[in-house]
Amino acid sequence: MRKVWDIHGGVHPPENKEQSNQLAITSAGIPDQLVFPLSQHIGTPAAPIVAVGQKVLKGEIIAEAKGFVSVPVHASTSGEVIAIEQRNIAHPSGMAAPCIVIQADGKDEWIEHSGIEDYTAVDKAELLNRIRQAGIAGMGGAGFPSAVKLGTRDDQVIETLIFNGTECEPYITADDMLMRERAEEIIAGAKILKHLVKPTKETIIGVEDNKPEGIAALEKAAQGSGIEIVSFPTKYPSGGEKQLIQILTGKEVPSGGLPAQVGIVCQNLGTTVAIYRAIQFGEPLISRITTVTGEACEQNRNYEVLLGSPISHLLELSGYQQKKASRLIMGGPMMGFTLHSETVPVVKTTNCIMAPSAKEIPPPTPAQACIRCGMCAEACPVSLLPQQMYWFARGKEYEKLEAHNLMDCIECGACSYACPSNIPLVQYYRASKADIRQQKQDAIKAEQSKVRFEARQERIERQEAEKEAKRKARKAAAEARAAGNAEAGKVDAVQAAVERAKAKKAATDPAQVAAETAADPAPNGDAAKDAIARALAKREAASSMTDEERLLNAVKALGKRLDKTREKLATAQAEGSDTVEILTETLAKLEIKLVDAKQAYDDHQQKN
Amino acid sequence: MIELITQQPFVSAIIALVILGVPFGALLGFAAVKFKTEGDPIADQVEALLPQTQCGQCSYPGCRPYAEAIANGEAINKCPPGGETTIHALADLLDVEAVPLDEEHGEENIKTVAFVREDECIGCTKCIQACPVDAILGAAKQMHTIIASECTGCDLCVEPCPVDCIDMLPIETTVQTWSWDLPKPAEVIATDKNSGDEVAA
Amino acid sequence: MALFKVTSPHATGPLNTARVMQLVLLATIPGVLALNWHFGWGVLVNIVFASGVALAAEALALTLRKRPLGFYLGDYSALVTAVLLAVAMPAYSPWWLIAVGVGFAILIAKHLYGGMGYNPFNPAMVGYVVLLISFPVEMTTWAAPRQAFSGEMPGLADAISVLFAGREAIAAFAVDGITMATPLDILKQNNSLLIEDLWQQSPVFGQWGGLGWEWANLGFLAGGLFLLSQRIFTWHAPISMLASLTLISALFYDGGSSASGGSPLFHLLSGATMFGAFFIVTDPVTSAVSVMGKIIYGALIGVLLYLIRVWGNYPDAIAFAVLLMNFAAPLVDYYTQPRTYGHEPAHKSGDE
Q1: Could you tell me which residues are beta bridge partners of residue A230?
Q2: Which residue, A153, A514, A600, C178, has most beta carbons within 10 Å?
């Protein structure tokens, strides 16, 4: 018997698995309409490549991967694209997201596809590409693209390949049934991954000891394959990737790191079967095993369900009674999230739909005061101090939260489960984590803005300095010339007259002068002589336009703007437009400016 | 001489103080030179906490000048974009009382990003000149557009626009950016909600 | 059905705060019965009266703070405070003494700091210390245990009358020798006799820790073990306190000379040792939180307990030892943050 390690803490909620593991897996059939969210995985959402009205076949790519961390989406049955729009999706926020909607034609017609006869003859890149093109993302919970996870760097030696058959969440039996009924496929997939990852030491399938049938089936299928089936005591949350690694190898994944750093790759069983089907038969990920359970359903069992099927379809098959349900949960009772609508579709990560009665999962009771009993700290699988973090989260003391390693929290919910005061601890941590991430992003953005602002300041200063330098140079040149001219006497009088005329013209058109100054300090095409002359003219014009005039101009301009704004406001008020407020504000500002300008003008006149 | 000193406690005290004072003075002088701080560390620390929107709502021309002003005793509650969070961070740093935001300088709004209605833009470049972080692209007589990821939402480009074609759009929450809120205060329950605000922590 | 938004986990554990408090109350029964048998009905009368006062004070505080009464009274925390304080007080205490103690504990030590969960000091122990310092005579006149009682043990009716009329008014208490110094007190005052002789001279020492006291201690030990078995608290703090007390008393026992502080067994079974170890030290609100923190917290209470008992002015030292460590709990927490999964060892909260 292989040595297994223990994890800190953990809880033992009632398992409630026997309700749904009595009946064999059955197909859920084809619903009328299927909804495919573009983002069913972690990473960039896929981009649609079909148009409304287009006919698609089963297994056809309808949205392609965008970027490295992304996977495509496939149609799970044949039919017609009837919409690409925002639909409710399975997400804790209850928000809508872009989806492709397909009306099934009932023919369930496959697109042409073929597998690889001998995967050992194909190189790693090709296998990974196949996995990626099959749209496979982790089916256990998070939905991380499998090809990315398996594409370990060549310099990183993987010692241990682990398959996660823990399924420690109560009620869920999808992996359990998969092990019982499709152990051969799991082992076949495990062999492919073993070939792909090439673990130097061992390949293990970890299963909790509450699934003896599954373990027996796996052991039978794994004979002679060199894959070891390891069972360990049932405890929640043993199935967390980091926890399972600790249980099976005694190693800990460094904080913020990946399992590959300690030479381990971990895969979910459902994903393994999907990879097997993708390599062996060329089938993309278009269906999965989902448990439907809870007392509000007459029949609790596992379905092989097409991705994109609305959960109302599954609930109907199971004899769901809405009145009896206290809530609808996607996932298990420990880490699942509540659904806000029965129309949301099944996605790649949907391992369970739970419709519990009020007796099974009572409505949340109001939280009592924290008495710091420490039961949460005892339950925490990563040895945090939840009761301390709860205080800090309430006080928004983010630095202390980080010092208490909030970011290592896996949100398993063991603390909230153990809490005698019913405090929604996990929600505090989720909110605080999001806030901390936001703060960090803001800090990065602030730093960027600062850099850009400073760069701009510097550029403006530099331009000013350059202008100043040029001006000085021209002045010096002009003086030198003037000195020369004086010697030359009347010869240049004519030219001077021309220049004066130009200057006059320039002065009459100050806007042009200003535009020229602003747009380009050295207008193209002019000879150096001309430039000097024009500069002189400009200076003259500027000096001829006294401060008084400038101030007066400002007053006039403001007056005009004020009148315009008043007009706008009048029309806006007449129309009842919602810009009235803004205009009123602008008007007030302008009035103040006008008064200021007038004041400045008056002051100036008095001074003279 | 020694006798005189020992018999005059006053004199001996002065001598002792002088003897002590000289080396300590030297030590302090040395430390002042040796550990001289460059620039104004307080202003730098303050600046690091400001949101760097460069919006000027504090009445200073940018975040750096306001940071320097705070280091010299200016109030810490004049930064609407930073809001409560920044005020608390500043209060922590400077060890002063956190005060509510000064409404005179604007209210803490949801974050926004500027958006040019491009078919209305006349290409006057006025907004480009106003933008403190060079987040607007465009040229004279050419349509302008905003680099949304660089925009700080400072509002400074809105007023100069002669055709009012710049909108400040609130940044919308998407499925990707959504997050849980903190739960309602733990001890507040249904019948207790109205008095919830006065709950003593 | 409401499709509402709640965060996971949806399942909740079987325990709730009220249940925890109920179990604590339940666990005091053996100790209280032992006390009641040996020291008479005054013990139970104390408890009942203190509970009444506590509920009234809690209701008053909640009303003033505009909190819903039913919700907060239902957590039993006020009752626990009252029972713990009443158990620590001498039997046959006058009503006003109990009212002042319980009132102070609930109103000042608990609600002024923000109510349950927010109090930095154990309310029962604050109440006890306030009484001990303010009314030293009343707080140290212990009734003699049954075996050493010179008159007839007062009945329930007498006990109730004492509560309101005072000891002077009741015939059963008129006899001399019904009150007696506690064994801890006698040992403290002793400076001439060997421990062995002292034991023989004063029948009040009983077999190990004092007549009556030893049985009460065993009763509280039983209650504590029950709570341990129910996983209401972990073994760390109480066991470490008892261990450190045993160790230090063994260290200073010196074979029982006249200057000896008493045997380890005596210290374990005398005064409020077991009561303190399982019902006061384990108060979660005011103690340290991590495993290592609890061990340090408990051990230091054990040491302080011995120091104050033997060399301090108050032989009933548990309250002082606990309050002093309540002060230190945040510091202990600061230095005993457990190592988080995936982190290097010896990680301190202030290191970043």
Answers
A1: A206
A2: C178
